[in-house]
């Protein structure tokens, strides 16, 4: 029957022929039956026979075939009635028959139309239901695919077990965690328990039995022993849920936490190694104390070793102050990405070292690191320096030259003093950064570039943008991740470490042996505010090593003030030195007291001066104590 329905839907013409055929066949059948009844001299059933034929035609054939059947049956009924009464002679009995006949025809027709409307409504409802079922089925399949993929990504398998019927289920990801294939014929929880490490199975069994009796949640970590002998660490979770049949069903997950376990073990081992290093530091401290080494040198050695332990990734950067640690923390955050970095800070603070640290701790560390000092390249040659030029691009270009963007392919390009690039060249640089393509000078070939850009400047770019010397769109393109390098006066606790480092470098460079530095010299270096930052400190140490005659290094005060710019009105050399000393002493005291002037722990008490005198001196030297709060 179903095949016939499909066939009729596929061939509409055949359906029409069959429907009209039913009407004609029913009328013909009624005619034959009427002849048979006439042979038996029966008169009354004629109308009923033709009504039955019309009903069959309209019921199974539809409205069109029903009308055809009605015409045929009416003609046949009239023929039989006239055959008994004569042509065009209708008796009172025949009128009643016609009235009843057409009354029943009308009722059958109405009933047939009602049936077809109901069938049409039911068919539409069925089609809508089938479409809804298809949509819901597709949605369920999509959700099941999402869940399966999420289980793979999170390495979490799911399971369910009916505590009443003992029927269980586990997902394909759980089978994978256990080391079985998806076709494995296993039962839960017995197949799972067989995979648990023998040493962990008793604990899991006890917890499982307690959960079954008390209907409580399960949370247990144990090991899985696979068939290949490998061991995986998992976390087993389960929670009871009552079903509609008053049964209890446990639903849960099994998460593979092997990597987290290995990380914890590695961390524990690292902590043990650090503890060993701390013990070594203690032994070193005791050894130095027995040898009567000064507390300052001991503290310096410990700080240096601790800084080396904590900052293995930044071996070229010396220091452990909070200000530097904050900067290095930002370096760690951005190093693993490909984000463009803008490094700002005063001259001599070591911005290029920060750029190198970002490169060396990035995924591009095996590729080139190229540095371009934009201030040292003439404006007319900056395009050639960055992008190269073709042979014959200009007079004297007798060969092709590769630019820094090509030399740094796959690596990092450091653009120092970015603010010195001419404005018209800034537009070209912006286009290269956005499109990742460029052309050599004098060339037409489009060259793709895969270079990470790190820019640096010691200028105020906001002021440069206001004055029109720097493009605002280029600033926002470079400023994806800003890093500010603190000046040396904000990380004074790093000065002893830097001094020892530069002494070793300079002594080896000039072939001298320097074992220590005078206490007075170290104090001078601590108090000085270093307008030239680390570069100035390195030059002072280098000069001091050159002029030293023994194994002890002394610092000449004149070296500290020889290159210091004069900011105020003209003053005598002695007056400038006194003002500088006062500024350094006050700023040092404010830094140690976190900007506090008054009170027993304020800077005035530390400097042994009245608070009013200190406030007046701070106003004269234009020192703002609020800058030192929270340091």
Automatic annotation (TrEMBL):
Q: Where are the transmembrane segments?
A: 20-38, 45-62, 90-109
Q: Which residues form the PAC domain?
A: 218-269
Q: Which residues form a coiled coil?
A: 267-301
Q: Which Pfam families match?
A: AAA_lid_14, PAS_3, Sigma54_activat
Q: Which PROSITE patterns match?
A: PAC, PAS, SIGMA54_INTERACT_1, SIGMA54_INTERACT_2, SIGMA54_INTERACT_3, SIGMA54_INTERACT_4
Record flagged with keyword Lipid biosynthesis: no
GO MF annotation, one: DNA binding
Q: Identify the keywords attached in UniProt to this record, alphabetized.
A: ATP-binding, Coiled coil, DNA-binding, Membrane, Nucleotide-binding, Transcription, Transcription regulation, Transmembrane, Transmembrane helix
Please give a single GO biological process term from the UniProt record.
regulation of DNA-templated transcription
Q: Which residues form the PAS domain?
A: 169-215
Ranges for the Sigma-54 factor interaction domain? 317-546
Q: Does the keyword Coiled coil apply?
A: yes
User: What is the protein name given in its UniProt record?
Assistant: PAS domain S-box-containing protein
Source species of the chain: Silvibacterium bohemicum
């Amino acid at each position: 029957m179903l095949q016939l329905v499909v066939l009729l839907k596929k061939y509409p013409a055949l359906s029409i022929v069959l429907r009209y055929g039913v009407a004609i066949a029913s009328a013909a059948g009624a005619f034959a039956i009427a002849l048979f009844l006439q042979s038996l001299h029966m008169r009354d059933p004629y109308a009923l026979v033709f009504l039955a034929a019309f009903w069959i035609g309209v019921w199974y054939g539809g409205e069109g075939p029903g009308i055809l059947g009605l015409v045929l049956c009416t003609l046949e009924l009239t023929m039989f009635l006239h055959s008994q009464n004569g042509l065009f002679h209708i008796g009172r009995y025949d009128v009643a028959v016609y009235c009843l006949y057409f009354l029943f025809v009308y009722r059958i027709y109405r009933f047939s139309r009602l049936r077809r409307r109901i069938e049409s409504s039911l068919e539409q409802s069925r089609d809508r239901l089938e479409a809804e079922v298809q949509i819901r089925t597709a949605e369920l399949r999509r959700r099941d695919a999402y869940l399966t993929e999420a289980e793979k990504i999170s390495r979490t398998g799911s399971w369910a077990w009916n505590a009443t019927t003992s029927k269980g289920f586990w997902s394909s990801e759980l089978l994978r965690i256990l080391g079985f294939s998806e076709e494995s014929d296993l039962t839960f929880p017995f197949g799972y328990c067989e995979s648990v490490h023998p040493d962990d199975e008793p604990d899991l069994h006890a917890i499982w039995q307690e959960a079954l009796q008390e209907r409580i949640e399960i949370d247990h970590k144990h090991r899985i022993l696979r068939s290949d002998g490998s061991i995986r660490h998992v976390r087993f979770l389960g929670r009871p849920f009552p079903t509609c049949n008053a049964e209890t069903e446990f639903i849960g997950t099994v998460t593979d936490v092997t990597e987290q376990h290995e990380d914890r073990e590695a961390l524990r081992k690292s902590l043990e190694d650090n503890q060993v290093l701390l013990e070594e530091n203690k032994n070193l401290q005791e050894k130095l104390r027995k040898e009567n080494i000064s507390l300052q040198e001991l503290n310096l050695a410990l700080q240096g070793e601790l800084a080396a332990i904590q900052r293995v990734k930044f071996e070229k950067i010396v220091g452990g102050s909070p200000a530097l640690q904050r900067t290095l923390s930002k370096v760690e955050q951005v190093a693993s990405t490909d984000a463009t970095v803008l490094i700002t800070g005063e001259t001599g603070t070591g911005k290029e070292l920060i750029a190198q640290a970002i490169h060396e701790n990035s995924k591009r560390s095996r590729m080139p690191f190229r540095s371009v000092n934009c201030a040292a390249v003439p404006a007319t040659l900056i395009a050639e320096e960055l992008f190269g030029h073709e042979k014959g691009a200009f007079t004297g270009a007798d060969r092709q030259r590769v630019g820094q963007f090509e030399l740094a392919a796959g690596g990092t390009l450091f653009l120092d003093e970015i603010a010195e690039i001419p404005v018209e060249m800034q537009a070209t640089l912006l286009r290269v950064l956005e499109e990742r393509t460029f052309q050599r000078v004098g060339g037409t070939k489009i060259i793709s570039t895969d270079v990470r850009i790190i820019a640096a400047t010691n200028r105020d770019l906001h002021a440069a943008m206001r004055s029109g010397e720097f493009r605002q769109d280029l600033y926002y393109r470079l400023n994806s991740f800003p890093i500010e390098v603190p000046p040396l006066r904000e990380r004074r606790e790093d000065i002893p470490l830097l001094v020892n480092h530069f002494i070793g470098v300079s002594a080896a460079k000039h072939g001298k042996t320097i074992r220590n530095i005078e206490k007075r010299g170290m104090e001078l270096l601590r108090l000085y505010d270093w307008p030239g930052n680390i570069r100035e400190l390195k030059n002072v140490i280098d000069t001091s090593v050159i002029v030293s005659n023994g194994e002890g290094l002394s610092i000449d005060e004149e070296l500290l003030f020889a290159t210091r710019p004069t900011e105020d009105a003209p003053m005598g050399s002695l007056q400038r030195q006194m003002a500088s000393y006062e500024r350094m002493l006050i700023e040092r005291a404010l830094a140690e007291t976190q900007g506090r002037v008054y009170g027993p722990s304020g800077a005035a008490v530390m400097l042994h001066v009245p608070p009013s005198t200190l406030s007046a001196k701070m106003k004269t030297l234009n020192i703002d104590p609020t800058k030192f709060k929270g340091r």
